Every structure is written in C-alpha cells, then in structure tokens.
C-alpha cells in the first residue's frame, strides 16, 4: 500500500516574476513595502512593463510549502488551479519535477494562469502585486475526499479567502478533513490579509485549526493587541499548536502546555520571498515525522534561512542534505 502523503497543500498556483528595484520605483508605483495586493490584469501589465530584467519562477505560498516538504524528502501533494496555457504548463512541470503530486485539472477557458510581480528592494523586503487569474476558477469540485483522507495534514494559505469560490473550496476541504481525521493547518498569509478577514480568521483559528502559522505582525493584527506577548496569551487557549515567526528573533512554538523559543538560523538575506512558506514546510515535515516541537522549529528555521539566501521562493539546495549536516535528521 502506498504511504499516506504527509501534507496536502492547498493554495493559489502562481508564477512569480521577480525583480530587484529601488525605493524610487516603489514610490512611482505607489507600492506599500512588504505588502501583497491583488491587482487586475491591466495593473499587472503596467508594473511588468516598467520592471527591470526579471526572473520567472513557479511560486504561490502553499506551492512553495509543498516544494519545501519534498526537498526534505517528505511526501506532499498540492491542490491549485492553473490555466492550460504556457505559464500553467510551466507551473505543472516545476512542482511535479521537485516531487510533489499535482493532479488538479487545468482550466480550459477563462482567465490565464496567475502571476505575481514581486519587487525586491535593497533591504531584502518583498512586495507582491498578484493577479489571481485562473486561481479564481478553483471550485469545490477540485477537492476530493480521497485526497484529503490520504494526507496526515491539510495545509491551506489564508490568501484563498480572497474570492467566494476559493473560500468555498477551503471550507469543503476543512469539512472533509474533520470527517476523515486529517489535521487542519492554516497560514494567516500576511497582515493585510488578516485585516480583510479578521473575524472569520479568528473563528477559524479558535474552532477549526490544529496547527496555525503566522508571523509577528499577523498574530498581533489577528487579536488587535499592542504586543506579540499579548497576542500569544489571547491565542494560547484556542489552538493545539501555533508556530509563530519573528524574523531575526527566530520563532516561538505555542501550545496550551508550553511556549518554546528557537533562535533564527544564520542567513545572508537576499530576498525574503517564501520565508514563511518554507518555515511551514520545515515545521510540517518535522511534525509529520514525529519530531519534537523544538526540532520542528529548527527544521523550519533551516528551510527559511535557505530560501532567503537567494532570489526565488523555492529551495536551491536540498533541504534534507542541510538538515542532515545540522544533525536534525
């Protein structure tokens, strides 16, 4: 019998178009540094036409997480919608080539495959302008009970809350997970996303989620507190496990019984795109491999440190090799 997938990742299937820009470019295009904003096709094309030479790579938050799990040697599958166009074919090839199972049927009409114009400033901050395109064609029909039941953990990115069709797909997946005994994991995605859906996210976190991922800004936004510590105390009674990242301060794993702080792995920061996605990959790989909470956080930090050391949101060095070198596997 084939082993269960460790994690089924569900998210927006996006091709990233990444370029280094200066602060003047950001001001010219009215960009809020560090944010992710949804744009229409015309705005996306306008930014693209002004961008300096760029690198095109398959991305999408949960897709990056799936790729990271596979890089550790884990078993990951993915649900996300692309169009049957050139970029859609690129996305399918890239995610399958790294060892992730991806069987979602491409759209044959409607919007093209999604893109995200990622602007990387000299301080290594990344600002995303995302045209969702075919992602919005994801429907409940793309989520099967067999796929959910065949995973130990269902991991969903908060960005899927941005359209009713995608949201309905997530709610179906959560319902199936609870029915089949699959754990539910959610990433809050970014603080602007939390601002848009705060009440719904609080309800999800407190009533449906087993493993929560958030950074410091996101968890503070969720509970509208003035400090990280206050947010942790509000969160703690409501979630089985929360893995909270704090950039150079490392991360904190919160359970009802303990709070574990783990320092950040040293890294030469080039581009923070994908840091949270790869943190989730390392943590979920460790969790589904039976590792301690501290080791899960160390694997997560290792993966995040690798991805921020270069342009692009997927690992360039095998994470299983790095983990073995650090004595974590």
Write the layout of secondary structure elements.
Blueprint: E1 5-10, E2 14-20, H1 23-28, E3 36-38, H2 41-50, E4 55-59, H3 61-71, E5 76-79, H4 86-97, E6 101-102, E7 114-120, E8 126-131, H5 145-149, E9 151-157, H6 164-180, E10 183-187, H7 191-196, H8 198-207, E11 211-215, H9 216-223, H10 228-235, E12 241-245, E13 251-254, E14 259-262, H11 275-288, H12 293-307, H13 319-325
Parallel strand pairs: 1-5, 1-9, 2-7, 3-8, 5-6, 9-10, 10-11, 11-12
Antiparallel strand pairs: 2-4, 7-8, 12-13, 13-14
Helix pairs in contact: 3-11, 9-10, 11-12
Order of helices and strands: EEHEHEHEHEEEHEHEHHEHHEEEHHH
CA-atom Rg in angstroms:
18 Å
Multimeric status of the protein: single chain
Number of strands: 14
Beginning-to-end CA distance, first to last residue: 25 Å
